[in-house]
Specification:
The chain is an alpha/beta fold. It has 21 helices and 18 strands. Helices cover 40% and strands 17% of the residues.
């Protein structure tokens, strides 16, 4: 089983969305600490508010600078104090995971909910009619039963990378476990077999909700998508939304002031939240982003329907939440097949080859942060390493077992530490070697290409394109391209667009950061 081809996002957008740097007023890197600038650490879900936030400068006297990050990584930045002094506020789709981390509450000050969007299932209208879900109440158990029977396939983001996937996982687990209150570790263990049945129908994954929607729109084989209501309502081709009667998990987008923010920034925060919660702006948010208004007196759009949403219980311990994510990655989800095409040419000598080794070793479990632990090679995953210089080396395969993964992870670590640099750069012959390998049945297949320069040996891009287009459909896996050093940006973008992958820019951050981000899409 493999993920469907998808179109790459523009490089500038990916640099902001995936590398973690962006701003509503343009520019990159850490925003300047000007007196009228509110520096906000945000989840990528907030990106669609950038046009509206540009108005805040004129209408509220506040310039907003957004720095993007993943949900778990952002929560760790805040809880550890690394955000103090660099940033003034955080804006994730939910603070639930953040609130579970020891010491996090002391880092937070005022929270203001800005908008609402539940995580629900959207289906193609014909499939909803076929299942009989377009006119009657449906439970998560009904959805799980149909998934087990193979009656539909769906897309969902990776719970370790995106809050929409995490919220969906929590909601499904809570509903299927019949928990009266917050999930416990014991309930996670008991509901795992039913979760495995449910997620056997997952056909697409991604690291962000918007990217998943883009991928879903181009894959005619997938019947539906679990995502924010706002994303589902914004799809070009209408979907039938299914609101499980036993409940959902809802994002409330709390704009949250950091306790370390100085007094002038607290005043900016107050101005911004008052402006965002004003009736006129709430209507603009609802119209422009399809999210429900939070301010009383603003009439919800009829598309939201009149049903009352039931909120499912959320874990009240971080250990339980982490156990649920780990269970999804290592036992429940359709496993990954990841092929790494790695530049070890002469230009990689020195610090660059050391950075590559460090990035790969981190994926074997050396990165002990929560986001690092969840980005390691998962149990049941097939991993193939294809280092290359003037020719590709023979592929080196590894299979991480379902139980006791440590010995195989140690083998991958030893392999990574043994890499050395020398020779030319045969990018396209090496990519072709990755695509020549047969797919592993029952796995998502993806290719990661990391190079620091131009193609100097072997076939060129045109030859690779012709070869790729001649592949059978099941072998056209997406390529996630990592820019590093003096990579040919335009040509690497063409590789991503051809294969339905994406571009990640490690020139502004690090190879370790880029590889960790890519793990959310594998």
């Amino acid at each position: 089983m493999r993920r469907a081809p998808r179109r790459a996002l523009p490089l500038v957008l990916l640099a902001a969305l995936l590398a973690g740097c962006g701003g509503s007023g343009g520019g990159g890197g850490e925003p300047a600490d000007a007196p009228d600038v509110l520096r906000v650490l945000a989840g990528s879900e907030i990106k669609d508010l950038e046009p509206l936030l540009r108005r805040a400068e004129a209408e509220a006297g506040v310039k907003v600078r957004l720095t993007y990050t993943g949900t778990l990584d952002g929560a760790e930045q805040v809880a550890s104090g690394r955000a103090d002094g660099r940033l003034d506020a955080v804006w994730f789709s939910s603070n639930r995971y953040l609130s579970l981390i020891d010491g996090a509450q002391a880092r937070l000050s005022t929270q203001s909910k800005i908008m609402i969007s539940p995580v629900v299932l959207g289906l193609k209208p014909a499939k909803a009619r076929e299942l009989g879900w377009d006119g009657r109440q449906v439970t998560w158990a009904d959805i799980a039963r149909a998934a087990k029977e193979g009656r539909f396939g769906f897309a969902m983001t990776n719970p370790a990378s995106s809050n929409s996937g995490f919220s969906a996982l929590v909601g499904v687990a809570a509903a299927l476990s019949d928990a009266d209150g917050a999930l416990s570790a014991g309930q996670v263990a008991s509901v795992t077999p039913r979760l495995k049945e449910f997620f056997s129908a997952q056909r697409l994954t991604a690291g962000s909700s918007g990217w998943l929607a883009d991928a879903y729109a181009r894959d005619r084989r997938v019947d539906g998508m679990v995502n924010y209501e706002s994303v589902l309502l914004g799809m070009r081709e209408p979907l039938t939304l299914v609101y499980p009667s036993d409940g959902v998990v809802t994002a409330d987008y709390p704009l949250t002031l950091l306790a370390s923010a100085p007094e002038p920034k607290k005043a900016l925060y107050g101005k911004l939240t008052a402006w965002l919660r004003s009736p006129a702006v709430q209507k603009d948010i609802m119209t422009g982003t399809h999210r429900r208004p939070i301010t009383p007196g603003v009439t919800p759009d009829p598309r939201f329907g009149g049903r009352q949403l039931i909120e499912l219980p959320f874990p009240n311990r971080r250990s339980t939440a982490d156990e649920l994510i780990a269970t999804y990655l290592n036992q429940v989800r359709v496993p990954a097949e990841a092929r790494f095409v790695l530049d070890t040419s002469g230009s990689m000598a020195g610090e660059r080859i050391d950075a590559l080794k460090q990035a790969l070793v981190a994926l074997t479990g050396a990165d002990t942060s929560a986001s690092g632990a969840f980005s390691r090679f998962s149990n049941r995953e097939a991993v193939t390493m294809i280092p290359f210089s003037d020719t590709p080396t023979r592929p080196v395969p590894f299979t991480v077992p379902e139980r006791d993964p440590a010995p195989v992870l140690a083998q991958i670590k030893k392999f990574a530490e043994g890499l050395s640099a020398g020779g030319g750069t045969a990018i396209y012959d090496s990519l072709a070697a990755a695509y020549d390998r047969p797919v592993t049945p029952g796995h998502y297949t993806s290719v990661v290409l990391m190079t620091d320069g131009d193609n100097t040996d072997g076939s060129d891009y045109a030859a690779f394109e012709a070869r790729y287009r001649a592949l059978p459909e099941e072998r056209r896996a997406p390529a996630f391209v990592v820019l590093f050093g003096e990579s040919d940006v335009e040509e690497m973008r063409k590789v991503a667009e051809l294969t339905g992958g994406a571009v990640f820019d490690a020139r502004k951050t690090s190879l370790s950061s880029a590889f960790k981000e890519i793990r959310g899409y594998q």
